[in-house]
Specification:
The chain has 454 residues and is an alpha/beta fold. It is built from 17 helices and 13 strands.
Length: 454
């Protein structure tokens, strides 16, 4: 008798709890087990927390939509579980990022559905056949909302493998109080850097964030493409124009010999460069767009002295764009749902949150003159982004980055000349005895002050 009373009491308690919590008893409306369907999103270090905020907002919206459907259709038993995005943060370092990604795949429990990568990492993933083409969801009208420079970056063999999320382009920051107009060629830049750094007793003529292999590769590419010397990394056997490559190294070697491009740039981060330039210790800085808004602050030491220009561009090219792109894993079992989340990240609302942190959004329509001006950027930025070319390092990503990093070290730290650098590119050989150039003289500096025209 006592046992029956206890059982009855437990049943009453379960009924009360089901009313209070809005859940049915086991075997009724609420599905058994986990209440969510999970999409795993793997991305590099989220320093400004923007991805975490976007994920949180998306999950809240999904939960609200699910509860609304449950309320409107209380008898419906086939309502799918809500989507829950699980953010997996990896390293900002390329090798460590892919090392963890391989570990996640081998583990098998949290295999990423979506992966955010730097555009220079994309070819590696395509070669390994781990991501899906997205052409089925990315129509021509959607592509037209994005900048051509970045849509080209995610296109291989006429297939689109990623969607740009945010982008950037390196800019030339210069001391406008020390020159009337910025240089229009790399040769002219070297001349001005050598002359002004000596006259003003500055330690640096030019700084760039060479600590990152990606930044170093993009820096070299911006110089090489100006001279029509861009390397073709699509095959193991590199092809290039030797005369153009020799011309491309000439202004850099000139600055090295004059001491205006010291070897410690290879250990500088973007912030290290900004600190040097803001302290008034560099004539030029090659850096990303974020620095522009920081120089607008009243407390900036050079708020009225910093000018911003595009990098030198020629008929061959020279304007480079870069950024982070969204890819979809072939392992995803929730492809339509993963695509919906990608569309959310590309929505105006999400892209505006990127803008609030100072990042450049992927969508053309968001580039308004007022916002560009507040961030210290030129109204020509959209044109630059549209006409820029991404750096494609081929399927042999690690080999390409390693070679370009070695080239910078040889030029800036080991004082190798252009012939030695070209031989290294062709043969992978570093000579013990220097190979003499026919003309090792530095770039000549005009006697009259430079007055370049924009």
């Amino acid at each position: 008798m006592k046992l029956r009373r206890i059982a009855a009491g437990l049943m009453v308690l379960l009924l009360i709890l089901s009313v209070l919590t809005g859940c049915g008893l086991i075997g009724q409306d609420e599905p058994e087990g986990d209440p969510y369907r999970y999409i795993y999103f793997y991305y590099p270090r989220d320093g400004n927390q923007i991805l975490k905020r976007l994920i949180l907002k998306y999950n809240e919206t999904q939960e609200q939509q699910y509860q609304q459907m449950r309320t409107q259709n209380p008898e419906e038993k086939e309502i799918q579980k809500p989507i829950r995005i699980v953010g997996l943060e990896g390293s900002g370092n390329r090798s460590q990022f892919f090392e963890r990604l391989d570990g996640l795949r081998k583990d098998g429990e949290t295999v990423p559905d979506l992966i955010l990568v730097h555009d220079t990492w994309l070819e590696k993933m395509i070669a390994e056949d781990t991501i899906l083409p997205l052409d089925g969801g990315l129509s021509d009208s959607k592509k037209s909302e994005l900048f051509q420079g970045m849509t080209q970056a995610v296109t291989y063999n006429n297939k689109t493998y990623a969607v740009p999320f945010w982008q950037d382009l390196p800019l030339l920051y210069y001391r406008k109080d020390l020159m009337e107009t910025p240089p229009v060629s790399w040769t002219e830049l070297a001349q001005i850097a050598n002359r002004i750094s000596e006259a003003q007793d500055m330690e640096y003529g030019l700084v760039f964030p060479g600590a990152s292999q990606e930044n170093n590769a993009i820096f070299l590419s911006s110089v090489w493409s100006y001279f029509g010397a861009q390397l073709d990394f699509s095959e193991k056997e590199l092809s290039f124009d030797e005369d153009a490559m020799s011309a491309a190294w000439t202004p850099l070697i000139s600055m090295v010999k004059e001491g205006t491009l010291p070897p410690d740039v290879l250990s500088m981060s973007s912030e290290d460069c900004r600190a040097v330039f803001e302290a008034g210790n560099a004539v030029f800085m090659w850096n990303w767009s974020y620095a522009g808004r920081l120089f607008q602050r009243d407390e900036s030491l050079i708020s009225d002295k910093a000018g911003i220009s595009s990098l030198p561009v020629s008929d061959h090219g020279g304007r480079v764009t870069s950024g982070y792109v969204l890819t979809m894993s072939k392992s995803s079992s929730l492809m339509p749902e993963a695509w919906n989340f990608m569309q959310y990240l590309l929505s105006d609302e999400s892209q505006r949150q990127l803008m609030d942190t100072g990042l450049l959004p992927a969508k053309k329509s968001l580039y308004q003159a007022g916002w560009l001006r507040r961030n210290g950027l030129s109204s020509d930025i959209p044109v630059m982004l549209d006409s820029g070319q991404a750096v494609k390092v081929g399927n042999y990503t690690e080999a390409a980055f390693t070679m370009m990093n070695q080239l910078s070290s040889m030029a800036f730290s080991q004082n190798k000349n252009t012939k030695e650098l070209i031989r290294f590119i062709k043969e992978g050989i570093v000579t013990e005895e220097p190979i003499e150039d026919e003309d090792e003289s530095p770039v000549e500096v005009d006697e009259e002050p430079d007055q370049p025209e924009e």
